Amino acid sequence: MKEEHLLLSKVTIDFPTANGPFRALDDVNLEIKEGEFVSLIGHSGCGKSTVLNIVAGLHQATTGGVVLDGKEVNEPGPERAVVFQNHSLLPWLSAYENVELAVKQVFGSQKSKSEIDDWICHNLKLVHMEHAMDKLPSEISGGMKQRVGIARALAMEPKVLLMDEPFGALDALTRAHMQDSLMEIQNDLHNTVIMITHDVDEAVLLSDRIVMMTNGPAATIGEILDIDLERPRERLSLADDSQYNHYRAEVLRFLHDRHAKVAA
Amino acid sequence: MSTQLAMMFENFRFGFVENMIKFVKGTSMQSKIHAATKNLLLSLLAVGVFLMVWSSVASQIVTSLGNVPGPAQVWTQAVSLYDEHVEERQREQAFIERQVKRNEAKLAKNPDAKVKIRPYTGKPTYLDQIWTSIYTVITGFLIASLIAIPVGIICGLSNNIYTAINPLIQMFKPVSPLAWLPIVTMIVSAVYISDDPLFSKSYLNSAITVTLCCLWPTIINTTVGVSSIDSDLVNVSRVLRLGWMTKVFKIVLPSSIPMMFAGLRVSLGIGWMVLIAAEMLAQNPGLGKFVWDEFQNGSSNSLARIMVAVFTIGLIGFLLDWMMLQLQRRVSWDKGATVR
Fold first, then answer.
1. Is CATH 1.10.10.10 the right assignment for the domain spanning B126-331?
2. ipTM of the complex
3. Cβ pair B232:A102 closer than 8 A
């Protein structure tokens, strides 16, 4: 693992409002190693998505910045692919065509037609969607849409994969399936991943580190928890694992004791 | 014994389930037919009530042109309008045949003789008027769409351009077509001067008037459709670093097609209403002129003939909208559109 793959340095962001600037994030510092899976967890409205959007380049930090492999991030780009919460597939394109749009854009000049086709199929296979390649998003379930969204992001061969509550809109069983799939893919590809989640189990199960954020306004990183569980991880055997439950309890304590959300 | 019983029971149960499945499958087909029949009956019922109310009310109102016609008289006039059309066509055919024979005879006598071919100058029949109106409205609508869709896209993409031309759109949108008509007429007769005109002036006047009224709903709907594109899809295009052209053609346009079609359908509906009024006012050929002529004519059949025109106008308006809907279903990814 190479050190200092992705660096967030003193990231602060102010959003202009009618009553003057609103400070959403204050002095966020984070170093992420290559191949690391990092979860951001915190109460809703604490600025998790803002952190992700700044890394993606969709938002610009007011002060501070993001450095990826020694280059500052100033704009969005396919080397920081995003999996959006509500899949964001183009509804008029089939699963295959949605991935194709990304692959053609990123590799259009480097790969031949058949290589592009192979690469699209390969990525759809990775998320177990090869059987529904020609279906429109409206014809497949929520979980399947999210799989295609992940395939689209993976197909860009990103240096960092950014996932904004990728399974938040799915039911519990589908979510568990998707988490297992994601771990499987992660075992093969060793992507650097930043994932936002609300779900404590999801965070502990998937992550190498969990970044816990304080409540906004002026949210920042409260604590970072290293998850030292062996991979591959298996949800059933971990359910009784004392170490796993200890990590779970740590996150829960942070969220509900030390940084309890004031009832809105 | 007990196992036999159990098997019998099993068979019975299995058969029962199978029958249930058959029954349910059968009913799904049957229920479709049932629903279709129900809808048809409901529509027929409404038409029946309408015809009854119409005929009972009509017979009690006496105008200077006689009784207001009931359904029966209107039907008679519809048939007679069609017969007149057939008759007129036969007359035209006969005229052309006579002319051909005469010219052949002339040429047989003297191969160098100059033959004149005169066009038939009978008055347009009801079906001719319908056809004139249809292609006029389609011309006006197509011109309007060719202008309005690009303008709408540009307005949707650029807030500055939208802000700049929005006052113009808002001001011209509520203008009645009939206010445009005199101006259009004057301008066409001043500008469109040709010895061998490809289109008649009246056709241009009507079509341009339709265009002026068809522009606005399409511009506004396209603008809204383009500017209200889902921000997640915009983010996708930003992450992919799509070029401007790719972004517009792969993301912006497809996502605004449903709104665009909503605008086009409103436009075509307005255009059709406007055209009839314009034809009445300007005496341009078409269904509007037919209505006006019958009104001026004032025979005992006139009201019934106008009623035929009313139903024709309604039916064609409905068919035009239905055609747009079919086109929309073909072009758009959003299959939820229905006739409303």
1. no
2. 0.88
3. no
